[in-house]
User: What shape does this take?
Amino acid sequence: MHEMGIVLHLAKTLDETAEQEKLTKIGRVVLQVGEVSGIMTDLFTDAWNYFKGRHPVLSESELVLETIPAVTWCDNCKRTYETVKYGKECPHCGSAETWLLKGNECIIKEIEAE
Amino acid sequence: MKIIELGASVTASNDRDAEALRARLKAKGILLVNVMSAAGSGKTTLLSRIVKDMKDLRFAVLEADIASDVDALTMEQAGAKSVQVHTGGMCHMDAGMTAAAFDALESTDFDIAFLENVGNLICPAEYDTGAALKLMILSVPEGDDKPLKYPLMFAESDILVISKTDALPYFNFDVEKCISRAKKLNPGIAVFPVSAKTGAGMEALESALRTIRNSEFRNPN
Ligand SMILES: Nc1nc2c(ncn2[C@@H]2O[C@H](COP(=O)(O)OP(=O)(O)OP(=O)(O)O)[C@@H](O)[C@H]2O)c(=O)[nH]1
Ligand SMILES: [Mg+2]
Ligand SMILES: [Zn+2]
Assistant: This one.
């Protein structure tokens, strides 16, 4: 469900970009997806394939997903670590006073178009 | 083919819709409050209490209830105009759906409109609905560790209501700890511990809402 919502917005954003930039065809669409964004890439691609048929400029497009690694900051020892490997608890000092620095974003990096 | 670097959020089109709705509501003098929380945290109970307490203001409630109209009926009984929003099974409300809900309300004579968003602490935080104020509710039974688990919701909200405080004696909920965790994520967040059941803390929340409404629109109509 979450994937469906994001794809819907993505398709709409691309439609609007096409109109502004007077594009007739969009090819590759490169998305940067954070490791802990909660986006399941398989579901996302399925949802994308469903939507692109309904948006003429996107009909021949191809979705490329790049992963942004998730990094957590520890407020106690002021160091960073890999979120996916260690989770909430800092591997350096054991503190749980930790915050996600990056890794939950979903950004349209670039598109190929004519 | 050429390559266009965008670096835009996937939700850029929603952000534009949200700005348009915000401008439209500002012109009409309506303060839209996006109310977000987990399911069952006490949104409907809190909102109907506010509507009953603040009789001099005119309220609208947009209910993003997926399956039923129970909440919409409760709000009508409390004295607010309400409208049911169809999210199409979506996990959040976006600005387009919110604008459509306003269109479905026949009148625009409101001082405050509440959007009762879909019940979860993750997805609604990611979408701008066009609201001028974001209010989240965390109920005592959910636990004081929620700021650690759902940081975005706490970072995005202007107001945190800690609800069901009458249940504090039965739960391990440390109000001070919860507030300090929330403030760490969002130093500017205003926190109101309340019980919609006993009425404790309601006055402070209601007077804050009134102040925000009046400062947003200096010439109330
Ligand atoms: N003890 C106590 N119970 C409350 C309070 N506010 C709400 N409740 C109870 O919590 C339950 C859920 O309340 P609702 O107001 O329906 O919550 P909601 O967030 O609108 O729920 P959904 O719309 O279904 O997600 C009900 O059984 C309420 O009676 C409160 O201040 N104290
Ligand atoms: Mg409800
Ligand atoms: Zn540490």
In short: DSSP finds three helices and six strands in chain A. The CA atoms of residues 6 and 44 of chain A lie 8 Å apart. The domain at 2-113 of chain A is CATH 3.30.2320.80 (hypothetical protein PF0899 fold). Chain A touches chain B at residues 1-2, 4-6, 9-10, 12-13, 15-17, 21, 25, 27, 31, 38, 75, 88, 96, 99-100, 104, 106-114 (CB under 8 Å).
